[in-house]
Design goal:
8 strands, Immunoglobulin-like, 106 residues, 4-stranded antiparallel beta sheet
Length: 106
């Protein structure tokens, strides 16, 4: 398993890749609102990019602080020392963060 983590002022995020048999893998992307009232956040747009993977989406944040997505496949995986760039937009605000593993942190 490889886990990339990072945070900004109002958000934290993680991207976890679990390797399965024969080169298959499943991945899970999670962003969490760190503020006190997630119901007031409304719609959240997010995107993440790395050298081997990328994705984006939009979802309404209600009583739960988390947005979680997942997928699987057998394609290329990012190197453990690579990073993910994450952008989160909500209510006219925008924050960016970098996700990394312990191997890529300085």
């Amino acid at each position: 398993m490889i886990q990339y983590t990072g945070e900004s002022k109002n958000w934290s995020a993680s991207y976890t890749i679990t390797k399965l048999n024969r080169g298959d893998h499943v991945d899970r992307f999670q962003i969490r609102y760190k503020g006190k009232d997630p119901a007031k956040v409304g719609r959240v747009k997010y995107k993440y990019t790395s050298t081997a993977m990328n994705g984006s989406g939009e979802q309404k944040l209600s009583g739960n602080r988390d947005i979680v997505t997942g997928s699987g496949g057998n394609g290329a995986l990012p190197l453990e020392d690579s990073t993910f760039q994450v952008t989160v937009e909500w209510r006219g605000q925008k924050e960016e963060m970098e996700l990394s593993t312990g191997a890529s942190r300085k």
